[in-house]
Amino acid sequence: MNTERDFNWFSLARQPQEPPSRDGPTLAGENLKQWRERFSPLLRFLRRKKVVVALSGGGMAMPSHVSVLRVLELLGVPVDAIYGTSAGAVIGGLRAAGLTVAELEQVMLDITDPDELFGFAARHPAMRLVAGEVVRAFAGRSFDRAGVYDSTRLGEYLSNVLHRYVGGIPKFSDLAVPFSCVAFDIGTGNPEPQRQEKTTKCVFCRETSPDLSLADAIGASMAIPGTLPPKRIGSRFYIDGATVEHLPIATAFHDWKSARWLGRRRTAVIAVDLGYGGNAPREESLSHPMSLVLYSNSIQSRAITDYNLLHCHRPRRGFSVILLRPRTIGVGLCDVQKIPTVMKTAYEETLRQLSGGGFLDLTAEHTRRATAFLGLGDPGSRDDPAHK
Predict the structure, then answer these.
(1) Could you tell me how far CA 334 lies from the centroid of its own chain?
(2) What is the pLDDT along the chain (388 residues), one digit of tens a residue?
(3) DSSP character string of 152-164
(4) CA-to-CA distance for 94 and 161, rounded, in angstroms?
(5) Is pTM beyond 0.85 here?
């Protein structure tokens, strides 16, 4: 597949009326009615349920989240709350701030150079790493400089987007849609010798952080270790939420159990997973030490997601997880030229996974595989937690 910018003609905002291919027919009249009927089983399942969207981390695959939101919009599915981690916190936070799906699409398409996000020479991390070592040698070592890239440029980019589309940087108390994003609190960086400083998963939301800037919370959630420095908020530092919860379904489940805002009503989580770690790699793909580190991180993320899925998917008790995996191509952190392709292919894959009566198939398949992946039993056996 050619993953360059071959899909500039495609627009999420004009779907499904626009032809899904250059030479295809438009959807209108009876054809459009039949298109919508493909999703009637899903819509019946969601009827009289609260619908939550959980958006995972995924780096530059994050435009996939926009495609999923567009499909839900086209189907008339109301979103009662949004949870996001890392890249999912970016899209989820901007959506909760009031950006439309069409505006989110434009924000993604406006990214034409990784330097806009990560600063000069973003495509050359080795050069940035050497430059960083020089700075640390003269200016000293601190959390603020513990990353290949400086987070200042990324923070400015988020601020500019929010100012452009909503007129400023909202606080959590300003958001019309309930939004929660996950980060990991690593402390102050200077713990007292006689006192053990607590490190913990942190969930920023309206109840816990009403006066916190949305841009600061997103910056904390996406502070990828080694790539971006920890985010300072007040006296504490935070790193990427994917460290502890790549796909924030456990956070949503906790809120449901505690009736924080859902009131224990029957709830369905549309869980968008952009990280498919754990597949057997080719030897040449892990020839660089850093590649092996990233691969091990993806396995860690999958293990946490698998465990949370087994723990949280409880349809009989009223909490269902509809797992989606719309990313179909590999996307590096600086592969901004692939953004149009990512959105088009993710849109098509989301439609495929949600159509007909098989919209829970991926959830069922993954819960079966998770038992073996986590060493909890053979899929399909009596000891399989997925059958309990």
Answers:
(1) 17
(2) 344 446 677 889 888 877 666 666 667 777 778 888 999 999 999 999 999 999 999 989 999 999 999 999 999 999 999 999 999 999 999 999 999 999 999 999 999 988 878 766 566 565 555 555 555 556 556 666 666 677 788 899 999 999 999 999 999 999 989 999 999 999 988 777 767 788 999 999 999 999 999 999 999 999 988 788 899 999 999 999 999 999 999 999 999 988 765 566 899 999 999 987 767 777 766 665 656 777 787 888 888 999 999 999 999 899 999 999 999 888 888 889 999 999 999 999 999 999 999 999 999 999 988 888 888 876 555 444 444 4
(3) HHHHHHHHHHHHH
(4) 9
(5) yes
